[in-house]
Amino acid sequence: MSTGAAVANPWLAAPIEIAGVTPELAGVATYHMRFRDAKRHAQFRFRPGQFNMLYLPGVGEIAISLSGAGGLGGTWDHTIRVAGNVTRALADLGPGGSLGLRGPYGSWWPVEETAGADLVVVAGGIGLAPLRPVLDAWLAAPKRLGRCTLLYGGRTPDTLLYAKQHARWADAGVDVQTTVDRADVGWTGNVGVVPLLLDRIRPLVPKNTVLLVCGPEVMMRYAVLSGLARGLAKEQIWVSLERNMQCAVGLCGHCQLGPAFVCKDGPIFRYDKIEPYFDVEGL
Ligand SMILES: Cc1cc2nc3c(=O)[nH]c(=O)nc-3n(C[C@H](O)[C@H](O)[C@H](O)COP(=O)(O)OP(=O)(O)OC[C@H]3O[C@@H](n4cnc5c(N)ncnc54)[C@H](O)[C@@H]3O)c2cc1C
After folding, report:
1. Which atom of ligand 1 lies at the shortest distance from residue 28's CA?
2. pLDDT score for 1
3. Where are the alpha helices (DSSP H) in 66-162?
């Protein structure tokens, strides 16, 4: 399986199109993509946690994680929140819209590498998007991969992503636990920040557990602390870091974090490798 950029020239974007759009939340949608070139489309592979660079001519280029595959006749997915110029222009394109792609890039969640260990997936807000392929991988091989727990939090119930899929994941055997910072009248579930769910989950066998964490940085810090307090070693915890990036191939230095380039050495880091820089705000 090729997981590096499939084009020889790292600056060359390949033409892709938006095959369909699934609205998710206010300002958030999942875009189902395919290459214009059928052969290139058939060859495209990625691993959970990797990202693409999406290029809108005349507007800009952004890093976006892959959030799924296999929909709409073999498309792959990007779940995107409108944040500024490029994401707004992308939302305006709609189905049939054309753009460019470089990728996939970056490191991945260690799903295959830790096969047999119990997976505890901790996500906050749109941080569930880069983790959804982990759940898909688990659903494809639940026996081989050990138990899977999803601990997912949002600010309010209407900010929880992929809500319709939570029941499907639970039916397939994932222990799905959700929480919100602020409940509304219809919410009967947990209230509180997502690391609290990690403090409470039972059973948890520290030696045989891998923690995968993605969300706002403050939430990731507390989730890491909670994981360590539950007896996990630093080597069993993986975090996803986002930094503004431009080249995506470790040349320009925009996403440098200490000695690492987030685009090339990340965005998924084993915690012990990134610990000295993880707590430094704004680095
Ligand atoms: C590896 C990686 C994966 C990502 N995956 C996703 C994803 O799956 N879905 C998604 O919606 N977004 C994702 N992002 C963030 C996305 O790249 C930015 O939101 C996007 O660049 C905003 O572009 P824009 O031109 O629309 O907004 P801009 O006008 O560039 O920015 C709008 C606001 O967002 C801030 N911003 C821009 N880029 C980042 C960033 N990388 N981190 C934090 N703040 C930023 C800006 O400082 C500004 O405040 C990812 C970023 C990285 C580095």
Report:
1. 11
2. 40
3. 85-93, 132-140
